Amino acid sequence: MIEINKFEEITQIKMSLELEGRPLYWTAAYLIDGLLIDTGPKHTVEELINYLKGQNLNLRFSINTHWHEDHIGANKLLQKRGVQIFAHRDSIPLISQPLSLPPYREWVWGIPEPTNVSPIPEKIHTKNYRFDMIETPGHSEGHVALVEPSKGWCFSGDLFYGEKPKVTHPKANILETINSMKKLVALKTDRLVLLSSTGRIIEDGRKALQICIDYLEDLTQKAKNLRKKGLSVTAIREKLLGKESSIAQITKGELSSENLIRLALQNNP
Q: How many domains does the chain have?
């Protein structure tokens, strides 16, 4: 299923597997001036293509913010329609090969077809706008954000989930996440509107990012202090984050609060 929303000159396309008439987990792509940012999961490819065809768009470019399966699902069909797709150089090899996914990820988003995409330029020009590519690793390698400086739009991919995240996956990097967020906060734009891949649009993006930065830095310091006192990862998690998230059981531990604590303990500024 897809849901269409408007924000200023931007069209937000939210996509999800439908379960008993309800979305299971939204992933958002953004359409602006002939540019599509992310292409959603495999499960919604046909709906996305039908929507784009129905709009009679002059769609020329698409950019994958990173290589995860919920962001590259329609790459193959869009390429067949003449759309040029770009991604960060570190994402390109992963997009071009078959992905091996845990069962829950295959069920929720599907397995995308491998595609050969082009390296993203530092600046992307559409008819009316200019988008700057900002390297923002942390959630994954090869992750980028796109910023339209005159408008203050920041398409942040999966860098930002929320001000105080409670779970993460084991291959994330907290230090890189913090540094990437600081990079966005420091941008010389009059405003910074976060347009996230979860569908949240946050008009005071700098404030939201700074709250998350402070939270992660504080969590890191507290976790390390407790570790010095001999507490285990589980004990630290219980003290700082409470009981383990229910999503940990669903994902067999791939998304968990204990992952967040482990990564905080590895964070060496």
A: 1
For residue range 174-228, list pLDDT tens digits in order.
Answer: 999 999 999 999 999 999 999 999 999 999 999 999 999 999 999 999 999 999 9
211 HSE (CA, 13 A, CB side): 12
Give the range of the structural domain holding residue 192, as residue numbers without chain letter. 2-206
pLDDT in tens, 72-88: 999 999 999 999 999 99
Give the C-alpha separation, 1 to 37, whole Å.
Answer: 18
- Residue 92 covered by a domain: yes
CA angle 208, 244, 212 (to 5 degrees): 10
The Cβ-side half-sphere exposure at 133, using a 13 Å CA radius, reads 22
User: If we measure between CA atoms, which residue out of 142, 137, 133, 45 comes closest to residue 92?
Assistant: 142
First to last CA, the chain: 42
Residue partners of 82: CB distance under 8 A and separation at least 6 = none
